[in-house]
Amino acid sequence: GQNIDQPTEMTATEGAIVQINCTYQTSGFNGLFWYQQHAGEAPTFLSYNVLDGLEEKGRFSSFLSRSKGYSYLLLKELQMKDSASYLCAVMDSNYQLIWGAGTKLIIKP
Amino acid sequence: DAMVIQNPRYQVTQFGKPVTLSCSQTLNHNVMYWYQQKSSQAPKLLFHYYDKDFNNEADTPDNFQSRRPNTSFCFLDIRSPGLGDAAMYLCATSRGSGHITEAFFGQGTRLTVV
Fold it and tell me: For B11-67, what is each residue's pLDDT tens digit?
């Protein structure tokens, strides 16, 4: 079966760095996406990785290792507005997005 | 400017009373998706269209139907809503297979069943 695992909840301090991990087992791989979702709102796109390595975009970076079925999202200089759920999704061989349940990130002052 | 628009943002319906949710897009994307998302859960794909080709997920209840009259519009019809159908319904679009892009989401419709 297809499976995406990520921690249910994480807590971090304003100004700090946090890493949210995602492991996956899917039928085929056409890339991995990270989305941010604030409570009661739709997911918004953060990053896309299809090759191994690190993609940096401002305060957010995303890393992929295809051999390990592993990705992480790194958030630097945390701000209170970063409190949200972070969803990992993998596009499988049928170009369908397989979603993780999301990691709720709580930022404390 | 909003590129994927869902109406309404909030919908209250009575148990068993048919309800239709709408989605429109200005991106001219081939693929449109309907997801159901309950609190603290992953979005659950109900069905998707690749152009006019309809793809139903195996575990989508028969109570849920969809229509896509043209590229821009897609509708979700819930024929007899039950209390368990209360959820956020998300519409998304993408460019389609062979063109890997992110899925663009509408703001969602939160459905309450009373």
Answer: 999 999 999 999 999 999 989 999 999 988 889 999 999 899 998 888 999 999 999
Q: Print burial letters for B62-99: b (CB count within 10 Å at least 16), e (below 16).
A: eebbbebeebbebbbebeebeeebbbbbbbbbbbeeee
Across the interface, whether the CB atoms of A42 and B90 are under 8 A apart is answered yes
Is B100 in contact with A40 (Cβ distance < 8 A)?
A: no
Nearest CA in chain A to B103: A45
Note whether B100 contacts A41, CB cutoff 8 Å.
Answer: no
Which amino acid belongs to residue A8? T
Best to test chain A binding among B5, B53, B56, B102 (most A CBs inside 10 Å): B102
* Nearest C-alpha neighbor of A102 from the set B101, B35, B86: B35
Q: Listing from the earlier edge strand, what are the strands of the sheet with A70-75? A: A3-5, A18-25, A70-75, A60-65, A53-57
Distance from CA of B72 to the nearest CA of A (A): 19
Cβ pair A60, A75 in contact under 8 A: yes
Question: Which B residues in the span 19-38 are in contact with A, Cβ-Cβ below 8 Å?
Answer: none
- Tens of pLDDT, residues A27-78: 899 899 999 999 888 899 999 999 999 999 999 999 999 999 999 999 999 9
Q: Phi/psi of residue B85, each to 5°?
A: -90, -5
Encoded amino acid at A49, one letter: N
- Looking at beta carbons, which residues of chain A come within 8 Å of B100? 30-31, 48, 50, 91, 95
